[in-house]
Every structure is written in C-alpha cells, then in structure tokens.
Design brief:
This protein is 26% helix and 21% strand. By secondary structure, it is of the alpha/beta class. It has two domains: 1-27, no CATH class; 34-190, HybD-like (Rossmann fold, 3-Layer(aba) Sandwich), CATH 3.40.50.1450. The strands form two sheets. The protein has a five-stranded mixed beta sheet, covered by helices on one side. Strands 1-2 form a two-stranded antiparallel ribbon. A hairpin with a 2-residue loop joins strand 1 (14-18) and strand 2 (21-25). It is globular and about 40 Å long.
C-alpha cells in the first residue's frame, strides 16, 4: 500500500502529521457515520441472551452491499450498548436506531414485541452502578441531547431461558424460531415499511 496516498477517512476530518505522512482522522466511530444502526445487545454465551447476535448475523447475510453503506450492524455485547450510544454527538449521522434484545414482559417465550421510547421504563437515576444501568436511561439521554431527531425502536423477544453463569450456546427452540421473525421486522423497518 502506498502510505503517501493512504488517508484515514472518518467523519469530520482533522489533519494529523504522522511519520512524515499527512493523515485525516476523526473521533467519530464509523458506525455513527451511517443513518441507520441496528444494535445487538446480549451475550451469545448465555442461551437466549444471544438472540440479538443471531439476528445481526442473519441481517449481515441478507442485506445488500448497497444497503450496508447506510446501515451499521453493531454487536455491542452485554455491556457495551451504553458505550456505543453515548458516543453519538453533533458529527454523528445516526437518524434511526433499532435495538434488538431479549425482554421479560411476561409474554409467551419467543413472542416479539416492538417498543418505542414511550414504552420504555422511565430512567431510574437512583441506580448508579453501570452494570445495573438500564438501556432506557441511555436512550432517553441520547434522544434528548441529540442535535437531530432520532427514530428509536426496540425489537424485543420474550426470553425463555438465560443460562448465566453457565455457558449454553444454543437458543431455546421458541427464541430460535423468533430469529427470522425479528429479522423480517428489522428489514421492514430499514426498508421503509415499518410493522407496528
């Protein structure tokens, strides 16, 4: 690779002189430079908690390269959604966030529920431990503080079984059967045909 011509091109560019080479860089992660983000939350090691990872993997296979130019598929794991979302700033281009996760709403295992900001529990600021901090707290802050309007939805799947602390790599049958349903919902949302 010709390093003289190579430039890092992310976000609002800033010049940096490194080892005799002018390079451009930004502190905005590449996934925030796309208008749409699908954010997987969960841990594939703990049975149904890995639901969102399976959804993201299928989306990766189905979406066209052209669609992926404006859709970020982010596997944030169990603890990183807050870190991903708190990086949204004035340089971010994100307009739509679809969070995929398991939920516990007392539904039948594998049942899908679509949630909006209005459906999420109001933030409880009495909890200060970051491991206990609900995603809704971060989402309220992001939506409130974003310089642009962000359309936010959760595609939630009622869990049957989370194996933590034991490692179980398989989803329950009910949640496995819900993966394709969730994929269809996310695709409809991304392609401008939302399912309510």
């Amino acid at each position: 690779m010709d390093l003289e011509r190579h430039k890092l091109t992310y976000g609002n560019h800033k010049k940096n002189h490194f080892n005799g080479i002018d390079m451009e860089y930004s502190l905005t992660p590449s996934y925030l430079l796309k208008e749409n983000m699908v954010l997987a939350c969960g841990n594939i090691l703990f049975a149904d908690d890995g639901f969102s990872v399976h959804v993201i993997e299928k989306l990766q296979e189905i979406l066209t390269e052209e669609e992926k130019e404006n859709i970020a598929l982010v596997d944030a794991g169990a603890g990183a959604p807050q870190q991903v979302l708190t990086l949204i700033d004035s340089e971010s281009k994100t307009k739509k966030i679809i969070v995929v996760d398991i939920i516990d709403y007392g539904l039948e295992p594998g049942e899908i529920k679509i949630l909006t900001m209005e459906d999420l529990p109001k933030p409880d600021h009495t909890k200060v431990d970051s491991h206990d901090w609900p995603l809704s707290t971060t989402m309220y802050r992001v939506v409130r503080d974003s310089p642009r309007e962000i359309d936010f939805k959760v595609v939630g799947c009622q869990k049957k079984y989370v194996s933590e602390p034991d490692v179980v790599l398989e989803l329950s049958e009910e949640v496995q059967n819900a993966v394709d349903v969730a994929v269809d919902i996310v695709l409809s949302e991304l392609r401008g045909k939302p399912i309510n």
